[in-house]
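Field log, afternoon session.

UNIT: design team B
ACTIVITY: writing a sequence onto a fixed backbone
BACKBONE:
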């Protein structure tokens, strides 16, 4: 009885671990979580510090709810940056955020960064100008950009020398972008998902219309567009308020290394994302090896149990 219960438990646990393997959309590309670049509640360790992240400026962390880059006060700047660089060749960063506040005017916005510099306050959504790397700007206040609906989300690839076009909301620097009018005070969790395959593609998807429904903001493909991100870059977020204010909250960050042992890019048959996979594909050889290891383990446990039973019986008989 004891042995059969143990065997059932071991097999159940092994099957659960096997089923937990995740894949990127409708491809054979595995998603390997990067704890060093992920963030979730309670955000801080027991000593009220974070092992993998630094934060500063006006950032406030409420361990059960959010990392607030700026509160609803004027002239605030806050940031949070990874302590180690992101060196994966292909990756996906999905993060949940919340933009909310009172009144009719809100700003200025927040940014996601993948840059060689880290944790340097400045005038570009709370971080340094003339950066080297990628910035994704969630701009919620319109200064001077006729014909564009705000909030506006745009990407800029910095070369370390070019300044952000502050006067025209980054018009001269835009690599790609989209309007996202419902991104503030949305009725569903607001999320962004940035996917990068080196020398192949850069894609940004947004969730703000309905839960589980993603809207493509932009998709860039090489060699049509140059979007080479530094191979060693720090992941960060920063926010800023000026005369207008807003709460800029980061709720969670999940970063995955996208790994394909057959290659390094997306699905080579179509090159396009597909719907999420509900049941991971497994090769027969992998399953045979899995069952072989399971039965080997169960055999070892069974042998130990039989040996213990014989020993216990001999001890009982020795008493008489």
């Amino acid at each position: 009885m004891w042995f059969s219960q143990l065997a059932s438990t071991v097999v159940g646990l092994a099957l659960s671990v096997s089923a937990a393997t995740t894949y990127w959309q409708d491809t054979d590309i595995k998603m390997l979580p990067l704890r060093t670049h992920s963030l979730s509640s309670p955000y801080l360790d027991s000593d009220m510090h974070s092992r993998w992240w630094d934060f500063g400026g006006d950032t406030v962390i409420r361990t059960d709810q959010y990392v607030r880059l700026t509160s609803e006060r004027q002239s605030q700047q806050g940031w949070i940056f990874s302590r180690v660089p992101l060196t994966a060749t292909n990756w996906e960063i999905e993060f949940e955020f919340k933009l909310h506040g009172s009144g009719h005017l809100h700003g200025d916005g927040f940014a996601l960064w993948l840059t060689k510099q880290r944790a340097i306050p400045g005038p570009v959504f709370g971080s340094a100008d003339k950066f080297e790397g990628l910035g994704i700007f969630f701009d919620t206040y319109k200064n001077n950009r006729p014909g564009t609906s705000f909030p506006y989300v745009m990407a800029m690839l910095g070369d370390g020398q070019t300044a952000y076009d502050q006067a025209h909301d980054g018009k001269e620097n835009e690599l790609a972008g989209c309007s996202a009018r419902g991104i503030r005070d949305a009725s569903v969790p607001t999320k962004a998902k940035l996917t990068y395959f080196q020398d192949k593609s850069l894609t940004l998807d947004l969730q703000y219309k309905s839960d589980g429904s993603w809207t493509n903001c932009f998709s860039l493909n090489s060699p049509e567009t140059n979007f080479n991100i530094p191979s060693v870059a720090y992941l960060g977020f920063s926010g800023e308020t000026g005369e207008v204010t807003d709460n800029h909250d980061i709720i969670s960050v999940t970063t995955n290394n996208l790994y394909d042992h057959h290659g390094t890019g997306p699905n080579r048959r179509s090159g396009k994302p597909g719907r999420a996979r509900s049941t991971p594909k497994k090769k027969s050889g992998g399953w045979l090896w899995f069952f072989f290891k399971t039965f080997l383990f169960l055999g070892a446990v069974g042998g130990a149990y039989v040996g213990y039973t014989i020993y216990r019986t001999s001890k009982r008989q020795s008493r008489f």
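LOG NOTE: The radius of gyration is 25 Å.
NEXT ACTIVITY: expression trials, pending approval
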